[in-house]
Amino acid sequence: MVRFLSEKVQQSSRPLRILELGPGTGTLTKAILRVIRPQDSLDLVEINPHFCRMLRREFRHPNMQVHYADLLEFNPEEKFDYIFSSIPYESIPEEVSKGMWEQKLKLCKPGGLISYYKYVNFNHFRCKFEKELVETCSIDRSFVIRNFPPAQLFTLRIGKEPEAAPAPVKLARKKNSKPRFMLTA
């Protein structure tokens, strides 16, 4: 699940903001902490007070912050480059699930990634909004058969990343030829 994060970390020269929703006991948190760099930050949003206390006790990392909060009420000042979600969407009423997805979209930077998994009924989407997002934004789907129960992982790219500046135009001229414009990188 952290494969895309690992690639993004290697490709980025700027600090990344990472959000994990529903970290529970921290299984995924451990993997994320192995990948992030000192300049990156990790925020965990957990609604269960017992898990929050455990996460704060087990994971002491200078760039990690645990928030005891409901996702629907979580409003940080900055958006995130990567969002991981371990929320059991299939057990949540559709209207609540839709609200959670809308909130995740608000929290994600343009071009940001959202990765999550489903355990049961993984080809069935209880929430139509989630299904439409997967159909339009999915960049990866994979099965984890060794997991019990088996899971399907989804990674979505949300919006577009800001375009890179165009390559500068330089004057270039071959020896003994007329001047002409060429694009060079």
From TrEMBL:
Assigned keywords, A-Z: Methyltransferase, Transferase
Keyword Flavoprotein part of the UniProt annotation: no
GO biological-process terms attached to the record: methylation
Keyword flag Protein biosynthesis: no
One family name in Pfam for this protein: Methyltransf_25
Single GO molecular function: methyltransferase activity
Domain Methyltransferase: 18-112
Superkingdom field: Bacteria
Family annotation (InterPro entries): Methyltransf_25, SAM-dependent_MTases_sf
Protein name in UniProt: Phosphatidylethanolamine/phosphatidyl-N-methylethanolamine N-methyltransferase
Lineage of source species: Bacteria, Pseudomonadati, Balneolota, Balneolia, Balneolales
